[in-house]
Every structure is written in structure tokens, then in C-alpha cells.
Fold this protein.
Amino acid sequence: MRIDVFTVFPSLIDNFVGESLLGKAQQNELIEINAHDLRKEAAGRHKAVDDAPFGGGAGMVLMPEPIFAAVESVEAPRPLLLMSPSGRRFDQDMALELVESGGFSMLCGRYEGVDERIATELCDSAVSIGDFVLAGGEVAALVIIEAVARLVPGVMGNDDSAGDESFMTGLLEYPHYTRPAEFRGMDVPGVLRSGDHGKVERWRRAQALARTVERRPDLIETRGGLSSVDKKLLAEFNLDPK
Ligand code: SAH
């Protein structure tokens, strides 16, 4: 899995991906992350990459010449995704698509964004990490890197741990507990300590369902509502929706 990032702040990417899970994944050669400086091909002493917008208005816009040149100077994996608030909304399904792709690249905007010709002619598509505006695409790229990297087999250590999680099954995840069994008068649910694995499974599934019904009814709707099996499971643990 190779991921390349084009940015005016390559050290932001390098520093983040050098630590923790991503650092280890790179050491173990499970994933390769390359940050490239968008200024590397820029002309002049100041290596300018931005200029004022045609038509006027506030802020600066990334110019096509240095940005095309920077991207064309390396053989970065495609697709090249532009980080942009007006792109396709990133989600777990997209993370799964990207991990299947085997490699991809991202271009981080700054200032007011990029010249539209960069968006339409250099990049393959645009991706947003949510309906808010960041100062630059670097944090968005890191969000995507982290969500995708933990799906690469071997990166998480325990390959099982990625399968069960929020969104993977179209449901939010069930609650977790660890030692101690009693903490400041708060007890771990008895079923988790019962040793009855079938019941633990059913309890977790019921908890995931109940939590999703309460917090994200849109996800239940996407699944086509609650099935009769779902309803029975909720009833078994007195979690019937009100
Ligand atoms: N003027 C632009 C916002 C520019 S923000 C607009 O209104 O759409 C500067 C850069 O930050 C963008 O070019 C983009 O690369 C990045 N960015 C900001 N918000 C983002 C988001 N929600 N998702 C992905 N990238 C984002």
C-alpha cells in the first residue's frame, strides 16, 4: 500500500505518520507514505505557489504551474484525490474502497483553495472529510491515511479488531469494558462475566442495535429498518425502542 501526499507542509505529514501505528506499519513495510513539497518545482527565490484570484476577492489561490509540475515530477500512485470541502464525503465505505485500490495520492489545498484547472485536469476526484472548513488539506489527508491504514492487513496487529467496529456492519459498535469489574460503584454488565459466549454475542449485537436506533436512526433506515430477528434480540435484553 503506497500513499503519496502533495502539500506545502510535508513535515506535518512526515511527523504524524512517523509515530505510533503508522510509524510501525511503515517500519514493517506494510505501508509506504511519501510526502512531497508542492514548492519543489516552484520558480523564483520565494518559490511562490499561490497568487491572487482572477475576478478579485479575498485570499490566495494555488497556481496551476508549480502544482502540476510538482505532481508530474514524481510517479505517484493514482487516483489523485483533491482534499476539498466540496468533494465526496469520506466515510468507512470509501476507506474500504481505497484500501482495495492498493495505492492512491492526495493533494492538499491551502489558502482559498486551488485553481479549478488543478481540480478538473490534474486530480481524479475530490474528497471532503465533513461539512466544515479547515485551513488546509493536511489534516484531512491524515484522517484518510489513518482510517485506510488500519484496514491494511497486519497494521492493527489483531486482524479481527477491525471487522467488528462502528460502521463496518452498518451499526455503531457495542460498549466495551475492562478491569476492574467494579469501579466507584459502577459494575460491568453481568452477562460479559457470565462465560456464556452465545449470550455475550447476542448482548453485544443488541447493544449495537439499541445504540444505533437511539443515536443514528438514519443508519437503521439505510439497512431497511429493524428485522424481526433484530426486534427479538432487543426484546431479550429489554432494549425495545420506545
Ligand atoms: N475556499 C474553499 C475552502 C478552502 S480551505 C471553499 O470554500 O471550499 C483550504 C483548503 O483546506 C482546501 O483547499 C482543502 O484542501 C482543505 N480543506 C478545508 N476543508 C476541508 C474539508 N472539509 N475536507 C477536506 N479538505 C478540506
Q: What stands out?
A: Residues 83-86, 108-110, 112-114, 128-130, 132-134, 136-137, 140 surround S-adenosyl-L-homocysteine (CB under 6 Å). The radius of gyration is 23 Å.
